[in-house]
TrEMBL record:
InterPro entries: DUF7210 (IPR055634). It comes from Pantoea stewartii. Residues 43-87 are annotated as: Disordered. This is DUF7210 domain-containing protein. It comes from the Bacteria. Residues 51-77 have a biased composition (Acidic residues). Residues 1-38 form the DUF7210 domain.
Amino acid sequence: MKLLLIKPNYFGGTVVSEGNTIETDEQHGRELIKKGYAALVEEDSAHLPEPEPEPEPEPEPEPEPEPEPEPEPEPEPEPAKGKNKKG
């Protein structure tokens, strides 16, 4: 297991400073990670350059809302002619 040391650590008879990598067995590596002394180095990504992030597409502008048509005024009822005559 390959680890990146976060804190100096006594390993293999010497003190290894932070920022260096060490190769150790699975159990010892898990202990160092759990205690916060080291972080796991991914074997596959260590040799590959980081891919550049794809640029985010620009958001499409929202279409302007269509203006609501004004309601047509209702015609006023005309007074009834000749029906209510007293005579």
